[in-house]
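Subject: for your reference before the review

Hello V.,

The reviewers asked for a structural picture of the protein, and I figured it would be easier to keep everything in one thread rather than splitting it across files. Below is the amino acid sequence we used in the manuscript, unchanged from the supplementary table.
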Amino acid sequence: MTTSAAAAAIASTEQTKSQQSSQKLAEDLDQFLTLLTTQLQNQDPLDPLDANEFTSQLVQFASVEQQIQQNANLEQMVALQQTSQVATMVDYLGTTIEAFGDTVYLGEEGSARFAFVLTESAVDTDIIIQNSSGETVATMTGATDIGKHEIVWDGTNNQGNRVEAGEYTVIVTPKDYEGLPIEVVQTIQGEVTGAGSDEGNVTMFLNTVLVPMENIISVRETTKATEEAVTDTTNDTSGDEEETDSGS
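And here is what came back from the structure prediction:
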């Protein structure tokens, strides 16, 4: 979704809500006035309608109308704010971000990059990569020491064959000496290909993977060196980054 399309969608949605409420109120008021007119025309002169009662109802309608108008103004303010946020996100197109998450996108070529952080040492760390159907396509053995560990998956399965392009879920399971799971924080990395709104929340797109704005940890310029590091796992083994083969 483009920025202009997202902005239009936000404004249209908020406007529709206000219009629906106003239309419903107008219909109810018309119905009430019709009923009131009929009652006044057919009232018993010896037992007239209580003016205080229908006056009170008219006041309630006026109060509801005022509230709807206030809500409409608030909705417009929210829509403008969200539109402004989407416009700001355009500046991030083409940059590389890191965000909390466990879903990566693998293209027809190249690799996918993700990371995990251990707050305590583990005895072993299992990494499972599943496709959109929940089927395991690759398994790995991850690092066990405290800290952040980056993984570059070359896009091959346990048989060494290239898998289809698409979204893949990464499951990292570190365990302690008793075989109990250890808390782990997972992140994903990728180039921003779009920005838009998902149910009113501003999001970035890493191809088809949606990343909420609040999940973003860091943003950096996508350079040629970055692209090579992401697409060629044999070129970057520095630091605690792990060159990981799916067959390991």
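For the response letter, the relevant points are probably these. The first strand starts at residue 96 and ends at 100. The chain has two domains: 3-90, 96-243.

Happy to draft the paragraph if you're swamped.

O.
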